[in-house]
């Protein structure tokens, strides 16, 4: 794998850290800006709002900018957003700063996925993209717990400053390691938007929103579920979040090779296993050992489905894959918001702390149904190998003209 993938992984590590570190520092943030903890929780939504808005907007605005230059501009915006978060004097400015920090998230992953896929031969494209995603999963094991500990020891502002520092390291790595990749003559926002109008792209984005929402219906309430039902001590919850991150890393490691061999079967199998694991978690949560095993599996299978969705989107928008790849992360953040809302809805309705697992199961089944519909639109839902349509699309999406390499 090319060294440039390391630079992309560092970017992903910074994004993963800043996306989730706020959740562990809400009490400190609330005290610091003079609001309640529930109000402080809105900064998590602010970041997600930035992701949803920024992915299509910044990708469209940068449609003619060479990939490496666009990566540098987006990473610079990431550094500015997190630095602004660290120095925000009040809740309003912090909310705005978190929106700003979230704006480059989807575009960075979208452009990064296209760059990664073009660094290697087409048959290894999914492996390259999954290596970039590995930075995101490692952030859940190392970055988020370390950022949380740093914020608790030195103040929440220190955590955001540390993330900005990671962004500066990523900038240096991008400058040094990523080769120049010029845009084609026909590149532009019109071409990207036409690709987004493809019904295959639309249904894959819907699959991501619904299917991945199953993970977030449980993940959003994982800590109170384990403390209230399993009886785990609050001091142990950091370990549980790290365990979830380990699962994500394992899932990402196997996702690349499996997706290179058979993208649709990998997606179908991942969603089936996710639905089964979430259903099992409803019963397994009462015993600590089985609850922790399910947490590991949910993290693994959730990450397993990320890579095939990304690659299928790029295949279907083969003439202009960047916005489709970026919009995938808008879809994941909508899944985050929707899954958390539905999970909270059943808890508030009095169904109990285990109810989000049933919501997650239903969403995973819904995602599977949408994935099967997408497969049928391609002329079949075979569980063996990749369809000719997908194979052709992936080859086109990852093809790089000779002059694009330094």
From TrEMBL:
Pfam families: MFS_1. Keywords: Cell membrane, Membrane, Transmembrane, Transmembrane helix. The chain crosses the membrane at residues 44-63, 70-89, 95-116, 128-146, 158-179, 200-219, 239-259, 266-284, 290-313, 334-351, 357-375. It is a multi-pass membrane protein. Signal peptide: none annotated. It is found in: Cell membrane. Residues 4-378 form the Major facilitator superfamily (MFS) profile domain. This is MFS transporter.
